Fold each of these.
Amino acid sequence: MEFAHSDKVVALQDKLRGFMDHHVYPNEARHVREIETGDRWQPTALMEALKAKAKLEGLWNLFLPHSPRGAGLSNLEYAPLCEIMGRSPMASEVFNCSAPDTGNMETLELYGSEGQKTQWLAPLLAGEIRSCFAMTEPAVASSDATNIESTILRDGDHYVINGRKWWTTGAPDPRCKIIIFMGKTDPANPDRYRQQSTVLVPMDTPGVKVLRPLSVFGYDDAPHGHAEVLFENVRVPRSNILLGEGRGFEIAQGRLGPGRIHHCMRAIGLAERALEDMCKRVKSRVAFGKPLAEQTVTLERIAEARIMIEQARLLVLKAAYLMDTVGNKVARAEIAMIKVAVPKMLSIVVDMAIQAHGAAGLSGDFGLAKAYATARALRLVDGPDEVHRNQIGQLELRKYN
């Protein structure tokens, strides 16, 4: 691995940092105020203005490796840029690089027909619409995706879809126009991994009903949010299927690789900002006769945070490098490792930052409470830690067969 970024990436880092300094950080509080004023489920004027500015400056669709529709960056090249975006909760959307749209766009790029790409991928890449991915279900343990019970059954030239999904991120957003839905087309297939299929469901299809937004430790993440969604006798043309019947599990696995690493890239940036906030805080506060920064326990925590962040970053960069050079399937152990290690690191670093801020860290004034909720949620997003640890252990044991 090369530890130095290319001139192209360094230039983009500088440009991205400049944009963040001038347009994102100064507007974080305003963005929150706009969401809390009026209908919080409507997109803010500020966000739309910043997206237009980012597009004009060429800081747009920086993900999507190895595709002419993207910015021409590999996963390894995108990693330090995604880290910069991860420093602010609002930043990824500004650059059209936010979940779940990035994963959905990569899914359409990899598995969609030309017609599907024209209809849905093009407006997503343009930032004109948003999307969601409906996979997790409240009635079953969705950590095992073969458990899903929603059905996608043929009826002439259509599929009829029935099921209840939840944690469908983006579904409450009025800009969400397309759902990537995973269900079973062949529940009786003896191969549990060939029962599922994935279809495209326009959000305005009759029978699609957003039941309620869901909160994460009290945060509803408006105006994007997460929702429980009911599908009752939803009819879509058979041409809306992705790749073909029985290929749903394969598509889900292909989608989750990039999604997992993007979450981890962003988490590195969030951890860096938490550490910065902690250092600034302890240098400005005095307790028991001396600055908090001179307390031994504080120095130990700062050192431990720096060590953990550096370790996590190197593992993320290794996973990105392997995804680029040998593919997601070969890199599955490294992808699983970062999905366990990085959220755990983030949880610890943010927790130490909260402790350094005292009761202020529990408030909404410093962003640490939201960061802590994000860190804890990441241990479940795209598969719980237990699933990844089991996979890592199994792959390790295979070396000794």
Amino acid sequence: MKFNEYVKQQRLKYFKDLGKFSKILGVEKVMWRKVERGINPPPRKTLLRKFAILTNMFTYEEAQMYELARRWQPHPDTNTNNHLLLSDNSKVEWRDALIKENTPDYEHKFWGKKSPL
């Protein structure tokens, strides 16, 4: 399982509404959505610890989350304008919006070493 799939699965156990969850966690909804999509790298450990507390994770689940965070790889759509509905005839504004949506909000400490994007 990948990090982003794991945190989404854990969040959905207690919080169906991403907006409410992100306010409680203290992050922007767009930022956390990108984490769950695999575009943003795993956030700092203190934020993941707060996530673990909010989702009532057991110790072994939290350890699993940290291990998956260490093995995180960027999603293939990162820094691209890939989308199912996009075609060669799509407007330039749409392509630019998709690139912005698929661009990470912050750097990962290993960003660029494992996967040059």
Amino acid sequence: MAKQIKAVVKIQIPAGRATPAPPIGPALAQHGLNIAEFCQKFNAATQDKAGFTIPAEVTIYTDRTYTFKLKTPPASELIKKAIGIEKGSGVPNKTKVGKITKAQLKEIAEKKMPDLNTTDVEQAMKIIAGTARNMGIEVVN
């Protein structure tokens, strides 16, 4: 028989820098988890992804055990890294902060494929292009 799920907690933590301090501690402590153990496991699993914020889905069972699934970094972070900007535009319709090529879009879309709701690379590129436009980044050929 499968374990009974108590809760599913979604959190975003900088890779390799999980600490028991807020927001991680309070989010997981209310379900009775060993936060120090979770932080050690998360940091070990994300050491190679330093510099990115990694979304994680923590499934907590009634017997206080847990599993966590790591997702790919947010599309906005991948876009910022690809074109080398600090942050997106505050007024994306008026102020453009950079340009991204179709090749860069395809590369980001392929990285994000497991977390997107499509299996087609062209559709994934459209999703990433929409994120880029909302950040004030122009998509060029």
Amino acid sequence: MSRILEGKTALVTGAAHGIGRGHALELAKQGAKVVVNDLGTSVKGDGRGNDADKVVDIIKARGGSAVSDFGDVSSEADAEAMVRRAVDEWGRIDIIVNNAGIVRDKAIWNMPVDDFDLVMRVHVRGPWLTSRAAARIWREQAKKSENGKYFGRIINTTAGAGLLGLFGQTNYATAKAAVAGLTLTLALELASIGATANLISPGALTRISATTGLGKPREADEYGEDEWDPLDPSVSSPVVAWLASDEAQMVSGQCIRAVRDRVSRLQGWSEAGAVTNGGKRWQAEDIGRAMAIDVFGTRAPGLRLVG
């Protein structure tokens, strides 16, 4: 069976556990050489460790190629080094999967500013730094190529909280919504060199989701090859591998939701209702009725004899 990422190299951040681990294993299965990045912290971002080594060992035992990286995605120097690590090891970097994440949940009236700042640093600053590092390399490579292109891939991670909101996550939801804006703009800026940027919105039982009482998580490699579990952290990983492949060249600036056995394309903010004022400036006292009738549909318009 042909492997769709043969000859590619990838960086997966936050790849020691959960969804990131599933992505790293799937990319390696599809032929990619993988930099397995993980700072080794708790789900709250405390401590450090070498958990990434275990994932590298699994990939190598399965016949793949991988190296560990223990850098902090929110550090400019570390982010640039982890991207450069693939180039130093294998001569190129093709794929960036920004998955690293932490949670520090509290209702807004109880949330310290440090908890907001740290979550934003990991989820927004981190993907921005790795994306910038990769984009700089790809742009230089594109300048040297005959067609002016370098078909790199950035796959960022959003979440239901960022798309719909979730009580207690004004930091995490804000960060995950910001990643959508980052990805849309990356897709525009990278288009000229042929690189793409997309969003994956996964759903699974992981160390992070387990903090909400969903149960005890299992790692992707703890499932049997033919075992089906809708909460398996790797259920979205085949979609990520496909987005990283040459076959997905035409896909950029998209948000793909991959939960259980369902894959869907999500649309961003779009008009659900609108009203105009006939080329005149709105008056505040007139807006309420127009909004209720024509925008929100919470008030019946009544019979309209004109217009």
